[in-house]
Amino acid sequence: MQPYACHQCGRTYKWRSSLNSHIHNECGKEPRFQCPYCPHRCKVKSNLNKHIRNFHRDICMMGSSLPI
Prior knowledge:
This is C2H2-type domain-containing protein. GO terms for molecular function: zinc ion binding. The chain is an alpha+beta fold and 68 residues long. The protein contains 3 helices and 4 strands; from the N terminus they run ββαββαα. The strands form 2 sheets. Strands 1-2 form a two-stranded antiparallel sheet. The chain has a two-stranded antiparallel ribbon with strand order 3-4. The radius of gyration is 15 Å and the shape is elongated.
């Protein structure tokens, strides 16, 4: 059971800190971070970095100066 629920969207979390992060960074917010390689957008920068590593690894390995 995950005891911490967002009162706005109902998403649940095991840890209070995860709920607080969700409320502060995600819930009801528009995505702020745009992928430089495709139309994908994220609300959290670390998720964008994961997206780039997973979907654009070949571009990044060609010498791009963007951090992963």
